[in-house]
Structure formats: structure tokens, C-alpha cells
């Protein structure tokens, strides 16, 4: 239960309640405006109260958020965790108002217990006369008893745990800048695995405590910072120079080292990624651009990040945020910071160091960062999520391979029946910045801020019981609409429906799994049949039958079973350019009447064997899934 997969689910669940905290920071910022001059003297007090109460009730928010995240958004788990927190708070307060306080630890325990109880008891069966309280309705009852027991345990062990937490805080604090360095280093390393939220939860919401003038107690770096603790912000301030300046500098280094023909596209993509990191603190689109091509460079990045955090601490800079260290939060929370203005010059120096280091590394070690690979990726589809989702589902091994699917801000978090069925190359062509295999079928696919939308579209597809047949590119070159082929028979779709390619290399490969049913005597055309009954014609060039096989070499024969990317034939491109009417190479389905629906990728350059250039739903195959045929 508590393996890597569970930890990534828990990390994602802990991120959910974080989304409410930016509102608290905005309220506290607005409370500092001169409302009295506008004749509204009570507004600052009201806004301050509205902002601060969110941090006072953060344990309750975390309990509900974690329970929802671990139970696939079950309302029963969410309401059970909230009831559990009310019970816990009431019992501990009634025993001793100055004793055990609601904390992130209590919220996390109750949230985890509620999520576990939902998964354990959602199919719980009682005798018929009690079944009203069975299933998910048993979860609130269970959590009521659990919270009562947990509160009683905390009353007995509370002081010991407080002393332990205080000792841990003192131990971490005694490490001084080196402790900050370790946190910064581990934070960046865990970002790669999507587990950094677990580390953040400890330092942002557990380590250290502060009691304000009213006697309210706040735990952790973040609540203490917004409550006015001048010592808080040590574990957040150092992230600003890295996120606002260093990673945007990396993005510009990647742009400036891209090939000239790809630079306009890469520039657009990474300027947006740099702006996203600078403004909002979303860093994965930049970090994953070099994580997989140069993991050792990511390790250097982690060390530098920890070093910057250490330096920030030693300079006495204290700053905080409610979500992430972007420019928006920097300026909103600047009035609460200590020496916050120093982040700007420190960040500029940090950005310069990163820019020089990464440009030198990319050039010196010939790193294949975006814009330096052999061919373009289809990663700028302008948010065409409904098109991408079916192809992504196929690249994940189809719906029967998906055991669990969730999404956080920047990545899909998946548990798969067989992670070996993933087509990582296809996912990268579909816009994924990276694919992370955690073992045991647990996989993360980084799509940036489109991740949640992609998850929703895939969920819809899985409920429709529709299976896609995905086509790979049969040649390297440029994909064009079939209507643009310089031949009235193909352009008029008299042979069949599909797409065409203008090849720039002389090799034809199989676009999908099937059996060769025909090889034309002049070798310019190959016919395939798939297990779904699709009959696919690949026709190299127009009027190439007149060459009578000149310039063509067959690499497969009739009756052969072929797989996507398997070579079918070679052709001499200069000969075709000189003697054929056109290089256009149609790929058409000659029995389109059995196709239910069609999807085509953008008509752009493609690699030989590249997945996701076309997909169809076969009527016969869909009926099988519905039990019409066996």
C-alpha cells in the first residue's frame, strides 16, 4: 500500500489543498492598502481576518484535500475527514484549551485515514437491515471512531510529540545554512519524481512554531510567515532566485543553442515556459527539457539551487509564498519579507551564472536539448487537447492498461498494468516533456499545465469504450492532406481515405501492425491488412509504376507479418525526383466504410516511424468491445 505509487498519490493529494492558499495571501496583501483614505477604516481588519483564518484552518483544509486526493474525489471521504477534524479539535480543546492544537500532522493523519477507509469500505456489506450504513456511508462512522481514538492518543502523547517536533525544529535550525542547502538540494531532486510536496509539507507546515499576540499558534515556515513571524521564510526565500531568474535563463540558453531552422519554434515554446516560471513558479517545462538528455546537469542544478538557498539564508533574506516562488507572489508578499528587495540583484547574478553554464554545457557536450534533435516534435499543438487525448491514451497502452490515472498541475500520475506497453517516443511527439518510470507500473508523464485537461479528455474516452487504431509515419518527410496529392484518383479519394507524405529519405516502413497482402510487381506499392480488418495501401510517388521497379528494392514479401517501423522497401530518391510525376506518397485505407471516425495530426514534418500521425476507430472493433461480436 505504501510503495512509490502510494507516495506519488499522496504527494499529488497534498498539492490539492495548496490551491486555496493563494487567496489567503491576496487577502493579506489587500489588507495593507490605505483603505482608511477611502473612508473604509474597517476593511483592513476584515481582509486580514479573512486571510489569516485560512492559515488557522489549514489543518482542516489539508485533511479534506488529502482525503479527496486519495479517494478519487469521493465526497464521502471528504466529508468524513472534515467531521473527523471537528471531532479531534473539539475533544482536544475540551480536555485542555492550551494543550494539543490542530496541526498539519493531525490533518494529514485524518486525511490519509479517511482516504484509506474509503478504499477499504466502499464495497463493505452489512446485513440487509443495516445496509443503509454499508459501503461509503460506513466511512463517516469509521472516521468518527478513528478521530475519537486519535484525539485520545494525542492527548496522552501530545506533549511528547510537541517536544519531538520542537527538537526536530531545533536540530534543523542548528544546521543553519547547511540545513537550508540540504532542503534546497533534495527539493529539486524530488521534483523529478513528483514527490517534492512530501518534503515541502514537513518544512512548510511542520518545522517551527510561532505564537502571535492573540495566542494563536502557527506551525511551519509558511503559516508562520503570513502570521508575521520575522524568522519565517528561510525555506522559501531561496527558491525565488532559482525559479524567477535561473530557470528562465536556462530557457533562453536552450533557445540560443537551437538550430537556426528550429529556433523560431523553440523560441516561442521556451519564451512561454520562461514566462510561466518567472510569473507563476511552474518550472517543469524548463527543467524536464534537460533532465532526460543530461541527468548529471540536473544534479548540478540541484546543487546550485541548494547553494543559492544557503546564500539567501546567510544574507538574512526572508520571504514567503502561498503557492510557488513566482514574481506575482514575490510582489504580493514583499511587505511581509525581510530584505526581500535583495532577491532581485541576487537573482540577476544567479540567472547569469545559469545562462553561461548551460550554454557552455549544451555546446561542449553536444546535448540534444529541444531544437538540437534530428527532427521537430509535435509539441506546439496550441492546446488541441481533444485531438491529442486519444493518441495519448493509445501511447499509454490503451484503456485496459490504465489501473489508475490522476493529474497534478504539470503531470499525469499513472498506475499501469504493464509500463512496458508505453510508447515514450510517441508521448514526446504528442508534447510530453518527459516520461518518468518509478517502478511497479507507476509512471508520470509531464505535459505541463495541460495535464488536468488531458486527464479529463482521456476519462471521457475510457467511458465511451472506444479503441483507436494508431498509424505511424511510413516515411521521413512532410505530411500533407490527401487532397493535395497531384493525382485526381488519390486526391478525389477514389482509392480510399487517408493522408500523404513528401519523403526526404528513401525508405518506407510499416505504419502499423499487420500482414502484407500485396506487393506490386513494380515494387512501388504495398498493401497491408490489420487484425481489425483495415486494408491499407502505401503508394510511393505518383506514376511510379512506369519505372517498372527501377530504383526500388523490396525488404518484405507477401504473407509477412510486420510491426510499426519495420522496413518494407527502399527507393532511390534522386531517380524519383527526376522521373516520377510527384514524390507524394499516399497512405490510404481502401475500405473506409468500416471506419467509424478519423483523426489527423497537424500537417507538419514527421520522422520515419513517428507515432500519432493518424488514428481511426473501426466500427467492427468497437462492436466487439460492446459484446456484439466475439
TrEMBL record:
Residues 1-374 form the PTS EIIC type-1 domain. Residues 386-468 form the PTS EIIB type-1 domain. It is found in: Cell membrane. Gene3D superfamilies: Glucose Permease (Domain IIA) (2.70.70.10), Glucose permease domain IIB (3.30.1360.60). One of its GO terms (biological process) is N-acetylglucosamine transport. GO terms for molecular function: kinase activity; protein-N(PI)-phosphohistidine-sugar phosphotransferase activity; protein-phosphocysteine-sugar phosphotransferase activity. Keywords: Cell membrane, Kinase, Membrane, Phosphotransferase system, Sugar transport, Transferase, Transmembrane, Transmembrane helix, Transport. It holds the Pfam family PTS_EIIA_1. PROSITE patterns: PTS_EIIA_TYPE_1, PTS_EIIB_TYPE_1, PTS_EIIB_TYPE_1_CYS, PTS_EIIC_TYPE_1. Its main location: membrane. The active site is at residue 408. The chain crosses the membrane at residues 49-68, 75-94, 138-155, 161-182, 232-255, 288-313, 340-358. It is a multi-pass membrane protein. InterPro entries: Dup_hybrid_motif (IPR011055), Glu_permease_IIB (IPR036878), PTrfase_EIIB_Cys (IPR018113), PTS_EIIA_1_perm (IPR001127), PTS_EIIC (IPR003352), PTS_EIIC_1 (IPR013013), PTS_Glucose_EIICBA (IPR050429), PTS_IIB_1 (IPR001996). One of its GO terms (cellular component) is plasma membrane. Residues 487-591 form the PTS EIIA type-1 domain. PANTHER family: CYTOCHROME C-TYPE SYNTHESIS PROTEIN AND PTS TRANSMEMBRANE COMPONENT, PTS SYSTEM N-ACETYLGLUCOSAMINE-SPECIFIC EIICBA COMPONENT. This is PTS glucose transporter subunit IIA. It comes from Cohnella candidum.
